[in-house]
Every structure is written in C-alpha cells, then in structure tokens.
Design brief:
Blueprint (H helix, E strand, L loop, with lengths): L6 E3 L8 E4 L13 H4 L5 E4 L17 H14 L5 E6 L1 H12 L4 E7 L8 H20 L1 H8 L11 H11 L4 H10 L9 H7 L3 E6 L3 H14 L2 E5 L6 H4 L1 H13 L10
Parallel strand pairs: 2-3, 2-4, 4-5, 5-6, 6-7
Antiparallel strand pairs: 1-3
Helix pairs in contact: 2-3, 4-5, 4-7, 8-9
C-alpha cells in the first residue's frame, strides 16, 4: 500500500509511535526542532497534510476534515503501525481529533496544541466558513499580502518581531496557494462540529496545550478541558505556536504525558 501522505521519519524506538500533524500552511518539516527531542523515547513521524508540503493533488475528499483524517489513518496503515499517539498543532490538532473520532481503537493518546474546539452555533460556523472563503481568495490573488497580514494576527504574538514574521512568510511562499486555499476552505473551522462531547465519549487520554499569550485559545481550551475532563497546560510566555516558541518545554510536556500511565490504561488486577 502506498502512503497517501508524505512522511518524515525522525526514528526513535520504544513506546507507542508518535504522529505529528502541522498547522495551516505548514509541513512536516515544521517539527524539525522539537521532533528529535521527542524521538528519544519513541519513533516519531511527521505527515504532510493534504494541500501542504508534498501531499498535493489528492482526491477532493482529502481536503476536508474527515477526508484528511482518513488519509492519516491510511498512511498509518501503510507504515504498518497498529496504535499511535497523535500530536497536532492548530489545524493539525483538529485533524488529529477527527482521526481519534474515526479510529479510536488506533489512537492511544492525543495532544491538541492550539486547536479550535469548534463553534457552538450554526451561525458562528457559517460566518467562519464565509471568512475562510474570502481568505482563500485573498491567498490565491495575493499570497505575499495575505501572509503579511496572517502573521500579524494577535494570536501569533509576532507584532514586534519583524524578522521572525518575515522569515515565516518567506517560508510559506514556497507552498502552492491554490492547494492551500482548497485546504483552508475544506478544513475550515466553519465545517467542524464541536469536539468536546464527542471526544469525551471516546475516553482517549487527551492533553490540551495553549500559549499564555494566546488568550482566546486559553479561554476556549479551558472550557474544552472542563467539558471533556481533559488535561490542560498553559505554557508561560508562549503564543499560538507553542512548539516553536518553547520547543524544549513542549517536548518535555508531551514526553511526560505520553509516558504517564493513564487510569483507563491500568492493567487488570
């Protein structure tokens, strides 16, 4: 079986394999700083999600949340893996949650970093979908202008860091704007049902991670933690991109979570 998604393998052995899913406009290489730290105790693999990196020109259904989740599961199958832990950032976190919903028996644990839990009302979802459609048109028409505005959004905490913002925007210009636009609309938060009740029903050990300076996501993930009974960590000094802002702290946090024996996993007496 050929893997539908491009895979980067950082090696490692012991423990359950860990799959890393990047955010919108990213690629598996975005994890290059933190992945070797995580690979000290397990095999770590990063996937290029549909429309990103080298996972391009896929079937139309792969550009939706459920279809992207299925592509992740098919790639796990192609690698010959049984059960995996999954860590996802932002859009990748939302797809990771959908992988767990689609294949709970294959999902050992979840780490959801700065992942939107979903809008409660239909009106909010429709408004967000329209916004993402407008953003997709902007991205296709003027990628440099879109990227400059994107990384000025307050959640990234880059308002005063011109060098880092410029470096991120320059890196993202390597991507295909039409592919990114398809993914932005197809995987929009406006197409996502709220995650809390559905994830809680699965019983998959879940860690939520937010950056202290990303106040909107601290609030949203705080509510999700209460609703689902999940662990929540707010990383001091970090913004939306916790794994890039604090790679050492993020790796230590995830490693501790994955190595912990969760109540549902205790061996019978």
């Amino acid at each position: 079986m050929n893997a539908p998604l491009r895979v980067r393998d950082w090696g490692g052995a012991g423990g359950d394999p860990l799959i890393l899913l990047h955010g919108f406009m990213g690629r598996s290489d975005d994890w290059a700083e933190v992945a070797p730290r995580l690979a000290r105790g397990r095999r770590v693999l990063g996937f290029d999600l549909p429309g990103h990196g080298s996972s391009l020109g896929l079937a139309a259904e792969a550009y939706g949340l459920e279809g992207a989740a299925l592509a992740v599961v098919e790639t796990v199958d192609a690698l010959g893996l049984e059960r995996v832990a999954i860590a996802g950032y932002s859009m990748g976190g939302r797809i990771a949650a959908h992988v767990a919903l689609a294949a709970p028996d294959r999902t050992k644990s979840l780490v959801l970093e700065s992942a939107h839990p979903g809008f409660a009302s239909r009106g909010e979802r429709e408004a967000r979908l329209e916004l993402d459609r407008a953003r997709a048109r902007w991205l296709q028409d003027d990628a440099p202008g879109f990227l400059e505005a994107w990384y000025r959004l307050p959640l990234f905490g880059l308002g005063g860091d011109d060098q880092r913002r410029t470096e991120l925007a320059r890196d993202r210009l390597r991507a295909d704007p039409d592919e990114l636009a398809r993914a932005l609309v197809g995987m929009s938060t406006g197409r996502q049902q709220p995650l809390g009740e559905r994830l809680r029903a699965l019983g998959v050990p879940t860690l939520l991670v937010a950056g202290e300076r990303d106040s909107a996501y601290v609030r949203m993930l705080g509510r999700l933690a209460l609703e689902g009974g999940f662990d929540l960590h707010v990383e001091p000094g970090a913004a939306h991109m916790v794994h890039l802002d604090r790679p050492d702290a993020f790796a230590a946090l995830v490693t501790t979570f994955l190595e912990r024996k969760h109540p549902a996993q205790h061996d019978p007496d």
